[in-house]
Design a protein that fits this description.
2 domains, 14 strands, six-stranded parallel beta sheet, Rossmann fold, binds nicotinamide-adenine-dinucleotide
Length: about 425
C-alpha cells in the first residue's frame, strides 16, 4: 500500500521504515528540513539499533518531504507527531491539530477513500472529538464514510524499537467503520501476536493504562527499595523473589533512580490531568509521579554521606540518556541530578556513548569526557545514572561510586560503593 507518515521522529520513522520493509511504499512528511534531508540520504536522524541497516535495505521504497500534498498520493496516513505536556501536565495537542488540519486540506483534493491512523499517544476522546472534526471541516468530507479513522497505539521501546515493531506483544486497533477495520487488518496481517480490535476511545485508553501501570511498577519498586536501603536489605534480591510470582511477573521490576523518557512521565501526567478534568482525583497516579521526582535525588543524598560539601568537588556522571541504547535525553534522570550538583557548587564531568550532543544543548557548562575511563580518572566521586553495557566492564578500583543502576562490577570493586536501593 502507499503510506504517508506525518512526523518522522522515533515512532514515525520506525513505523515507516518497518512498513517499507513489509513491502509498502512510504512517504515521510515532517516540518524539520534537516530530518527530511537525512531520511532522503538514507541516514537515520536518530540513533536506534538496527535502523540504519534497515534504511539501507529498504532504500527506494521510502522518501521524505515537507510538502503535505504528498498525502493525496497515498491510501493511508499515520499521524506520528509528538504529544508533549503543557505546563500543567495536560496534553498539548498543538501538533496533532496542525497535522489534522494539513491532512484535511490535502484530502479536499482526493476523491478516493483515505484512512487516517492516529499512532501518537492521545488522551481518550481525542481522535473522535479533536482529530475527526478538524479533518471533516478542512476537507468538507464525512468521517467513516468518505474517509476512515483509526487509533493504533504504539508500544515500542526506544533502544529496541525495530525489534519491538516486528515482535510486538499485541497490536491494538481502535476502529468504528468496517472498511477501515479491513484495511488495518491487512496492514497487520503478517504479525502473529494477539490483535485486539476495540472502539477508538478504548484503544486510546489501553495505551495510557499500560504506561501508567509500568510507571506504577517502577515507583512501587523504588518505594520498597528505599525502605530496603534503610533496613540494609538488597532490593534486587527482594524483587527477584517477588517477581517469581506469576501473577506479578519479573520484567520491568527493579529499583533504581526512576523512569524518564518521552513517554512515562508525560503520559502519566496527561492521564492525571484528564482524570481531574472529569472530576476524579487519581491519588495513586499522583504518588507515582511524586516518588519518581524524588528518586534521582537519592543519589545526591547518598553521595553526601561520603562528601559532605560538594562545593568545588568534581563529580563524574556515567550516562546521560534516559536509558541505554538511545541518544534520547527527554526527562532523563541525569537532568535533575546534574541540576542539583551544579546548585551545590560541584564541577560536573560527564560521559555517555550516544547522548552527549543532546545533553550539551541543555548543559553547555559541563565537561564532556571522551571516555568513561576519563570520568573515573578525573572525579572525586562517580554517579552511575544510565546502565550502558560498557559501564559493566570499567575498572572501578579505588573510586567512590554511587550507583543508581546496579552495575555489579562497581559494587564489587569500588573503594566506597553505595547502591541507591541496595
Ligand atoms: P518525536 O518528537 O521524536 O517526533 C515527532 C516528529 O513530528 C518531529 O520530527 C516533528 O518535527 C514532527 N512534527 C510535529 N508536528 C508536525 C506536523 N504538523 N507535521 C509534520 N511533522 C510534524 O516524537 P516521538 O517520540 O516519535 O513520539 C510521537 C508520538 O508517539 C507521541 O505521541 C509519543 O507519546 C508516542 N510514542 C512515543 C514512543 C517513544 O518511545 N518515543 C513510544 C510509543 C508512543
Amino acid at each position: 500500500m502507499e503510506v504517508s507518515i506525518i512526523g518522522s521522529g522515533y515512532v514515525g520513522l520506525i513505523t515507516g521504515i518497518s512498513l517499507a520493509e513489509l513491502g509498502h511504499e512510504v512517504t515521510f512528511i515532517d516540518l524539520d528540513e534537516e530530518k527530511i534531508g537525512d531520511i532522503n540520504s538514507g541516514k537515520p536522524p536518530i540513533f536506534e539499533k538496527g535502523l540504519e541497516e534497515l534504511m539501507k535495505k529498504t532504500k527506494g521504497r521510502y522518501k521524505a518531504t515537507t510538502n503535505y500534498r504528498a498525502i493525496t498520493e497515498t491510501d493511508t496516513t499515520f499521524i506520528c507527531v509528538g504529544t508533549p505536556s503543557k505546563e500543567d501536565g495536560s496534553i498539548d495537542l498543538t501538533f496533532i491539530k496542525s497535522a489534522a488540519t494539513e491532512i484535511g486540506n490535502a484530502l479536499k483534493e482526493k476523491d478516493k477513500f483515505h484512512v487516517i491512523v492516529v499512532k501518537s499517544t492521545v488522551v481518550p476522546g481525542t481522535t473522535e472529538e479533536v482529530v475527526k472534526p478538524i479533518i471533516e471541516k478542512e476537507s468538507g468530507k464525512e468521517a467513516f464514510k468518505d474517509f476512515g479513522l483509526a487509533m493504533n497505539p504504539e508500544f515500542l521501546r526506544e533502544g529496541n524499537a525495530v525489534e519491538d515493531f516486528f515482535n510486538p506483544d499485541r497490536i491494538v486497533i481502535g476502529v468504528k467503520d468496517e472498511k477501515t477495520k479491513e484495511i488495518m487488518e491487512k496492514f497487520y496481517f503478517p504479525f502473529k501476536c494477539p490483535k485486539l480490535i476495540t472502539d477508538i476511545k478504548t484503544a486510546e485508553m489501553i495505551k495510557y493504562a499500560s504506561n501508567a501501570f509500568l510507571a506504577t511498577k517502577i515507583s512501587f519498586a523504588n518505594e520498597i527499595g528505599n525502605i530496603c536501603k534503610k533496613l540494609g536489605i538488597d532490593a534486587y534480591d527482594v524483587f527477584k523473589g517477588v517477581g517469581l510470582d506469576h501473577r506479578i511477573n519479573p520484567s520491568f521490576f527493579r529499583s533504581g533512580i526512576g523512569f524518564g523518557g518521552s513517554c512515562f512521565p508525560k503520559d502519566v501526567k496527561a492521564l492525571i490531568a484528564k482524570a481531574e478534568e472529569l472530576g476524579e482525583n487519581p491519588k495513586l497516579l499522583k504518588a507515582v509521579i511524586d516518588v519518581n521526582e524524588r528518586q534521582p535525588l537519592k543519589l545526591i543524598e547518598l553521595l553526601k554521606k561520603h562528601i559532605t560539601n560538594l562545593e568545588g568537588k568534581t563529580i563524574g556522571i556515567l550516562g546521560l540518556a534516559f536509558k541505554p541504547d538511545t541518544d534520547d535525553i527527554r526527562e532523563s534522570r541525569a537532568i535533575p541530578i546534574v541540576k542539583s550538583l551544579l546548585e551545590e557548587g560541584a564541577k560536573v564531568i560527564a560521559y555517555d556513548p550516544k547522548a552527549m550532543d543532546n545533553f550539551r544543548e541543555l548543559f553547555p557548562q559541563l565537561i564532556y569526557a571522551e571516555s568513561a575511563e576519563k570520568v573515573l580518572e578525573k572525579s572525586d566521586a562517580v554517579l552511575i545514572v544510565t546502565e550502558w553495557e560498557e559501564f559493566k566492564n570499567l575498572d572501578y578500583n579505588g573510586h567512590v561510586v554511587v550507583d543508581g543502576r546496579r552495575i555489579e562490577k562497581a559494587k564489587r570493586d569500588a573503594r566506597i560503593y553505595e547502591g541507591v536501593c541496595w
